[in-house]
Amino acid sequence: MDPEVLASLGVEGAAAAAHALSLPAEAYGNDAQLEVMWAMKAYNHAEVYFNLISSVDPKYLKLTKNDDMIYSKFREDFPDFNIKILDPELLKSAEGKEKWRPFCNHFETLVEDFNYGTLLRLDCEKDYTEENTIFATRIQFFAVEIARNREGYNSGVYNASLKAKQQKKAQS
């Protein structure tokens, strides 16, 4: 998932990839190249998001124009959901999917690409790694990350980054 791979496509290749990713799922079979493009897109999104919460105090971030609605509905439907360290079973099991489906579908017309695949960190105090990442829908990502930002759980990432920058500056 090296960014150089995407760059190696060139402008025309990147445009073709973007077009391919915008087509409905029914237009494809199991195409390995398409899966790689989706994985790269998800990885790039994750990298940008982690850099963002490392650089800006997350409590001030607005991820969508519907943040207030997403957060309210999430906490209404999942009042006790542990967002600090996610249990993948609560998202991925048959029972978990049944519970999430109405929530996700509520945002079908309100959040663009609400059901696109996105990477989500399990432990909010850690970076995206193979062990700390699951695949979730975009609306699940928004629900969890908006809650983490508003409830202060992502502040640890920002504070650790700020501390590292201050130490680096002090050493120079």
Automatic annotation (TrEMBL):
One short Pfam family name for this protein? Answer: PBDC1
UniProt superkingdom: Eukaryota
Which InterPro entries has this protein been placed in?
PBDC1-like_dom_sf (IPR023139), PBDC1_metazoa/fungi (IPR008476), Polysacc_synth_dom (IPR021148)
Identify one Gene Ontology CC term for this UniProt entry.
cytoplasm
Ranges of residues in domain Polysaccharide biosynthesis? 34-158
Question: Any idea what this protein is called?
Answer: Polysaccharide biosynthesis domain-containing protein
- Annotated source species: Silurus meridionalis
